[in-house]
Every structure is written in C-alpha cells, then in structure tokens.
Amino acid sequence: MRLSRYFLPVLRDVPKEAEIASHRLMLRAGMIRQQASGLYSWLPMGYKVLMKVQKIIEEEQNRSGAVQLLMPTIQSADLWRESGRYDAYGKEMLRIEDRHEREFLYGPTNEEMITDIFRTYVKSYKDLPLNLYHIQWKFRDEVRPRFGTMRSREFLMKDAYSFDLDEAAAVKAFQRMFVAYLRTFRRMGLVGIPMRADTGPIGGDLSYEFHVLADTGESGVFLDKDLLDKPVPPADTDFRGDLDPIFKDWTSLFAATDEMTDEAAFRAAVPEDKQLMARGIEVGHIFYFGTKYSAPMKANVTGPDGKDITVHMGSYGIGPTRVVPAIIEAMHDENGIIWPVSVAPFEAVLINLKAGDADTDAACDKLYAELTAAGLDMLYDDRDQPAGSKFATADLVGIPYQIILGPRGLKSGEVEIKHRKTGERETLPLANAVERLKGLIEPQRMNDI
RNA sequence: CGGAGUAUAGCGCAGCCUGGUAGCGCACCUGCUUCGGGAGCAGGGGGUCGAGUGUUCGAAUCACUCUACUCCGACCA
Questions:
Q1: Does residue A264 reach within 7 angstroms of strand B, measured from its CB?
Q2: Which nucleotide has the least CA–C1' distance to A36?
Q3: Which of A200, A258, A378, A400 has the fewest CB neighbours in a 10 Å radius?
Q4: Are A235 and A270 contained in the same domain?
C-alpha cells in the first residue's frame, strides 16, 4: 500500500480525552475516531489490525472444532422473555421498538438466540458435542464507557456456545476452549493468563477469565510467575483427545483476580519468589453454566434410550475490540506502538527518503514490488516529506520493520533495516533486502506455533 | 446513578474576570529553498465561539435553561 494513496490521519497532538496509552496511541496513530460516548469508527489502519486479530481468533476456534455462523445484532424481546433475562438484564440492554411497536433489543450477548437455533435443528444425542460461534457487534449501555475501545458501548465479540449431553462432556468442551484461548492470545503476541473467576450474572459453576498484564488493567491480579513463561499447547494438539492434563497443568498454579482471592490467601499459597501482584486486562472469559438456558428454553435432545436430555451449555467470549488496545498496553514505548508481526497493520514499511528524486523513486518502486511479490504485507511511504517525519510516523504506528532507502544508500547499493521493537539497525546490500526481511518476518507470523 | 469538570477551525490551546473587528501552534493550500529523526521563508484558505432564551446600542465574554463530552466512585468481552 502506497501511503500517499492510503488514509492514515495521524495526530501530532494528544487528544485531551485520552487518559491511557492505548487510547492515546490509537487516536494518534489514526486507528479510531470517537463518534459518541462509547462508539467508535475504525479507520483503515485500526480496522486492518482488528481484522488480523479476528482472523487469529477464527483460526483457533476452527482448530478446536468450533463452527462459525453469524447471528443478527437485533434480537426479539420474546426470546429474552423465555430465559427471564428481558426483565433481569436492566438498563445495560438497549431496547428498541420497530414501526409495528414490536419490542426488540440490540444484543448484548447471544445465549438465547443460539439456544433457539440449537433446539430447532438438533434433536439427537448423536449430533453432540457441538460448539457454535460467531463474531458480531454487541451493545451494552455501559454506565461509564472509557479508555477508548477498551470499554466501549458498542464492541465486537467472539462468542462461542457449547452443547453437550452431560456435565462431564461439557467440561471437555470447556477445556477445548481453554486450550484454544491459550493459543489465541499467544499468537497475538500476548501472554493470556487464565484466572479463576466469579461466574457473575450469567451464572454457572466453572469460569475462567483470561488476563493480559498491564499497569492500566482494571483488575488486580495475583499469580504465580511460572505462568508467564509456560509454553502454550502446540498446533497439533489433539482437540478430540484428553485435554485434562493441559488444563490441570495450567490451573494448578495460582492465578486469581482480587474478586476471587485476597493478598493473604495468595501469600499463603505461593512461594515468595514466585509471587506476582499486578494489574490485568480481561480479554477473554469462559463459562460452563449447565442447563441455565437449555432448561427454560427446552433445548433437549433424544438420548440413546429414547428419553429427552436437557443439554449442558457453556459460553466463551473474546472481545477483539478490547484485545487491540490490550496489545498496545502490553507493547508500546515513548515513540508509539510496537506491534507483534502477527497482528501488525503492515509487516514492514518501505521508507523512500527522497520521494521526487527520479533514481530513488525508481529504486524504491522496484524494491516495493519485489517485497510485495515476496508475500510481505507492505506499507510504502512514498510521500514527499522530510525523513524525520517519516521515521516518526513509522515509529508511532508501530510497523515492526522499517526498510530505509535513500540516495546515499542507493549510491553504495545498500539499504537499512530498522527493528521497531529493539531499535536495532542493520545495513545490508540492496540485493539481499527481500530475503533478509522475509527471513525476519515469516517466523514471527506464528501461524503454526 | 452520585461527585467534579470541559465545550472557541481537523487536533492542541489563548481570549471570557473587566462586553466593542475571533486569535496562536500544528495540520491544510500556493510558490521557492530544503531533504538520514516530526524542515525554512513568503503568501493563503478555513469559525452558526455546543444549542436556546434573556440582559444590552452591542454578547465567545454577563444570566438562565438545555445538550454533548471527559474525569473520580459501585457493574461488565
């Protein structure tokens, strides 16, 4: 993508409403624009990151055996009356009336709707286990939206719903999502730490939140440091096999939010040199809640003995529109964002130091074509701007690698590659640039870790 | 929902107290010179001063009402 033809409205000044780093940087890097309290447009650069995050989530959901579909944002109130939540949900739910004065709502979650779909089509125990998920916009009329898209009213959520014959099978479904989540966050360059959690208003028995450590996190968390370095289950993990050892391995180490434990309990349970008290951003939440919705909504299947069985359900959420700022909170410096390659809006930016100079333009155009042909997701800064301005923009928006070419390098046949994360620079022959950059980037895509 | 605050050009701000031609920096446009860390000079464009009502010869400025947004506290992917 040629930057001169792209839409990247970076800001030099910091908008005053932004309090935390990720919000400031998302505004400055031209990723989002606030349209009203808790409502955001995703500008091209931001949207591109969001789509990469979404793609990783989809790949890992699919890998674990979940099946993607798409449900509408607007739901009928009648469905929510069946579960009793229409009245229970309160003001957080945005209620809407259509022209015929029928009652609707903008979905804050989809348990009722997915249960309705399930009960309509699935009639036999032979069709289980089943896990259906979608990625769709949700609306929760938060009392106080804040921190940009970290806590917005309209937000994107991946929500998966599992259906099983009994609790033992449902726990297996829960563990599949548990493993999928470990891999999902890792692939985004994050350490997503599972923590025992309160089941809250959704109710149920078994619940883990996944947290990313960041100073600006909204939750206080207590954990065993060993969790930070734990390798996640590999891509060839057998999701149809027994995941209990993995689950036990991860959950045997202490990790809980301050809602579930206190410092004294933590101190007593964890050796002193392993204790870590920090703050965390909740980026995912998984629940097992049994027959809470299936019973009132009559989601039954026929068992082997011909009798009805009420299915056991779980729900599993990740908020991509929260994950994006969480990644920024975890990875930035005073110059801007530092994207991991796997979710970076572009993998590298080619900086033409003297746009308008015929020789430099020709060399850069050629290099850009070669880099693109090599399968790299490239941004090409071909604007007629001072070098310093281009470097500052590249640093701010956080592209992992800058490949820098100007008249000086052209004369000596050399280009420079700057690593955004470390600040390290290397000079190499122009002819080697494509292979070198490919070699740096490809292993970091983490498609099959 | 309680408490505090803000609203003037795309962004950041001054002007308001003490009413009298709406300003600064960045960004934008034109020209020339620059060109390896947010360039320089010269010229230029852009505003219902959040909205309404009132006071006044005259309101960004004073008064009242409303709205939007932000921050601090209890809930949530």
A1: no
A2: B69
A3: A200
A4: yes
